[in-house]
Design a protein that fits this description.
The chain is of the alpha/beta class. The protein contains five helices and ten strands, in the order ββαβαβαβαβαββββ. The protein has one domain: 3-Layer(aba) Sandwich (Dihydrofolate Reductase, subunit A), CATH 3.40.430.10. The structure holds NADP nicotinamide-adenine-dinucleotide phosphate (NAP).
């Protein structure tokens, strides 16, 4: 299975603000790109990000949520496409052992900040970064990761650019 990160940052590398659990901007084309990239794959997110979804889980994807409260949350919410785990390791192990027919081999870390920071300690194959063109302030800043990656794709969309980074040393495929 391949480990990937997907995030949206703005001109200040902001991903959000700790006083408001939700995206600070709305770019429909970026949301569509997120959906297109993550459909039929496995997601790993933190409990705050899950709470900000405003729905139990993102459809047509397996939703793993990391929380110290995972036992209680599984009793309340667990479904075939939603499961809570005590750690990223246990989530990845579960996914490897419970692959879903028709799904691909991609695992996406989808945030928030605590999960991105932990994810960067893993062998990440690809970072999909949407750079949204605004200067909104926030205190959740996406970590520096670029020194271990090279830029493979840069594409322009309405109001944002998509940057795709690959881990240095990965085969140039
Ligand atoms: N711009 C983007 O692309 C993007 C994407 C996603 C999210 N966001 C934003 O990011 C913000 C949320 O980020 P965040 O860092 O505050 O929260 P988060 O990473 O979404 O969730 C943090 C929570 O996850 C659980 N967790 C994380 N690591 C854990 C570990 N090792 N063991 C057990 N539990 C663990 C804990 O839940 P418990 O407290 O239950 O133990 C922790 O409080 C929001 O503002 C959201 O809108 C932005």
């Amino acid at each position: 299975m391949n480990l990937n990160i997907i995030a949206a940052i703005n001109n200040n590398r902001v991903i959000g603000d700790s006083r408001y659990n939700g995206l600070l901007w709305k770019n429909n084309q970026d949301l569509l790109l997120f959906k297109k990239l993550t459909l039929n794959s496995y997601l790993i997110m933190g409990k705050n990000t899950w709470e900000s979804l405003n729905c139990p889980y993102l459809p047509k994807r397996f939703n793993s949520v990391i929380s110290s409260n995972y036992k209680e949350l599984n009793e309340l919410w667990k479904s075939p496409k939603l499961e809570f785990f005590e750690s990223i390791d246990s989530s990845i192990n579960y996914i490897k052992n419970h692959q879903i027919k028709g799904f691909n081999d991609e695992i996406f870390f989808i945030g928030g900040l605590s999960i991105y920071k932990e994810a960067l300690k893993y062998d990440i194959k690809t970072v999909y970064l949407s750079k949204i063109n605004n200067n909104i302030n926030g205190d959740l800043i996406f970590p520096d990761f670029e020194k271990n990656f090279y830029l493979k794709v840069r594409a322009s969309f309405n109001g944002f650019e998509q940057y795709v980074y690959k881990k240095i040393g990965e085969a140039l495929s």
